[in-house]
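pasting for ref
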Amino acid sequence: MSQPLLGLGLKALEAWAQEHGQAAFRGRQLHDWLYAKGARQLADVSVLPKGFREQMAAQPPEGALDWMGRSRELHRSVARDGTTKLLLGTHDGLSIETVGIPAEGRLTVCVSSQVGCPMACRFCATGKGGLQRSLAVHEIVDQVLSVREVMEQRPSHVVFMGMGEPLLNIEAVLAAIDCLCTDLGMAQRQITVSTVGVPRTLPRLAELALERLGRAQFTLAVSLHAPDQRLREELIPTAHAYPIEDLLEDCRRYVAITGRRVSFEYILLGGLNDQPRHAVALAQLLRGFQSHVNLIPYNPIAEEEFQRPTPAAVDGFRRALQDRHVAVSVRASRGLDADAACGQLRRRLEGSLEPVLAR
């Protein structure tokens, strides 16, 4: 097995230790140093024999700088409200973003599932750079450990709402969820997987979740951002291949397989999709769903001229949905003074980080 250790469970780590000439209890020690202590290098695991550590350092695994599978912190941006965005460097010279969002009694980590994103949503900074590759399990779990380390607080929630489309990396995302729950002690109900929609993948996600995790209790959040197909295609060019009616039918199949309701995300763009008529159309579209709508006021990016909605527009949209018996909440905007929108920090620093990434 020549893969990084981060992401492996206790039994797999015991097997790895034995495959490399060590007793099984060395695997238990590695598990503790990986997940409880957050060790960054195998050399740091002082309970392991020095000769073994030196031997393994001479033959690093595929896809990582060290057997532990940790990424390098390239840049840190901290907003006035405590929201902390990290830019992490991978073994192959790429960079990914993760964000720690503190609130009273909780810490949410927003993780990326890919380097870049192929979905090309017009309002998203990540989509402007295209897709480099999908992330491996250790690169996803490392984001949670990195935020825990920097913010010196145990994460309470994880949301797959960072760079990338999680449903284009289903296997690694589900393996990461398994690791977060089994090895870091989180509950599935503390985890949210967000998707803009990939044809024919929601039923597969449901079936794989039941197969790999035993149950599907994480929250599925589907990004609509428009109440009709025409406007949705204007905002999300890839939506032309996935009519909104088909997306909602796949959501119904997901609910039937898992027994879990679907949450819908709707980014409010000033003057474009935030008017009362849009709220009425959205309520009509979601009729029959036992669902929840999460309204997200837009965080501006340099490449587009979309406007942030006014507080009155946000409140009017929310009330229009409530009046039609749609469960709704408004996501509080965090980190507006620290490249809040997904992908902004990475794009702003791309040129200046090239020498660092090369090293």
